[in-house]
Amino acid sequence: MRILTFLHSFEPGGVERVALRLVCRWRDQGIDAPLFLGRGDGAMGAELGRDLDPHVPRGPGFSVAGFETLWMIMTLPGFIRRTRPDAMFCAGNSYAVVAVAMKLLLGRRCPPVLAKISNDLERRDMVWPVRTAYRLWLRIQGRFIDHFVAMAPGLEREIAALVRPGAGAISIIPDPALSLDQIDRLRAVRRKRAGKGRWFVAIGRLARQKNFGLMLDAFARAAGPDDRLLIFGEGPERGRLAARSRRLGIAGRLCFMGHVPDPALRIGQADAFLLSSDYEGVPAVVLEALAVGLPVIATECSAAMRSLLGDGALGRLVPAGDLAAFARVLADAPGLQHAAASLAQARRFTLEAAAPAYLDSFARIAARPTEAFLVACRQPIPSTMTSPL
């Protein structure tokens, strides 16, 4: 079986990191798993892509950074025709437009597509006209994409209600954010720290979705003079966030650590892990924090968050975007009361468990002729939809 994965680049991102680890795991198991990239650069290339030998289409003579999606739509059909994969892996929500475009451009010659739903589908952060259009886009995906993966129990209901794929077209495969060996290494880094104050840590791309501005505001409002905040990650919002920290008067207590390989290995002395996102799927960084043994303070940015945090046993949840609530919880950061439970939760989301489960799903959809394109052609797309408000 040949499984084709397509990604924008090696730029750091949770979706891309998980996809690259799956490709490596499948190849270790003897699966033919080609990798297609819109462009070949990015910090994870040296970290995870050394032996992957991705196919990168010859560029148009200038950088395609910023419009990799369009470039992939233009160049991926030819690669599919040449390599004839048995199935394709759509690694996250942002890649669904490429998957649907392949179905339209290739028709019945397009291999079946399995798509992982990597982000919240409700998207309450959107204004209602945009949210209505987004829900229409989800319905279109349900017509064209063959199979969907929910990354945690409970998320399949969201997919069924908003994407509405065909019967039997949803699997639940816990997100392979960790490996058993990685969990052992992460648990080993937990240790006490001498000195005053508390250390708060966060990991994530410095992008608008992550709403690090909310985290900085809450820290400025509730943290003590000896408290520190360390943020691991890089992204387009760094300059704006640095300026914000100076306006808030916390620049001396805030450290931007940049992109580092395996940042979770460096948070073992922290007192709590922070997540301030507006929306997420199953945040891999939360699972890493649980593997380390840190309590979590997070926004309720996903339908999976309550179950991830054991209904409050492993951390505290606040409404997304609620500065006052985030600051209140940060001021009285909880200690982790159930270390064994955090370890057990982390072990549910491993590469060792997920990789064969994905292969089973690929085998099922590759064994039958794809029906999604034909169904989509037969059924009209609804012209009106009920407002989500």
TrEMBL record:
<feature type="domain" description="Glycosyltransferase subfamily 4-like N-terminal">
    <location>
        <begin position="12"/>
        <end position="174"/>
    </location>
</feature>
<dbReference type="Pfam" id="PF13692">
    <property type="entry name" value="Glyco_trans_1_4"/>
</dbReference>
<dbReference type="InterPro" id="IPR028098">
    <property type="entry name" value="Glyco_trans_4-like_N"/>
</dbReference>
<keyword id="KW-0808">Transferase</keyword>
<dbReference type="Pfam" id="PF13439">
    <property type="entry name" value="Glyco_transf_4"/>
</dbReference>
<dbReference type="GO" id="GO:0016740">
    <property type="term" value="F:transferase activity"/>
</dbReference>
<protein>
    <submittedName>
        <fullName>Glycosyl transferase</fullName>
    </submittedName>
</protein>
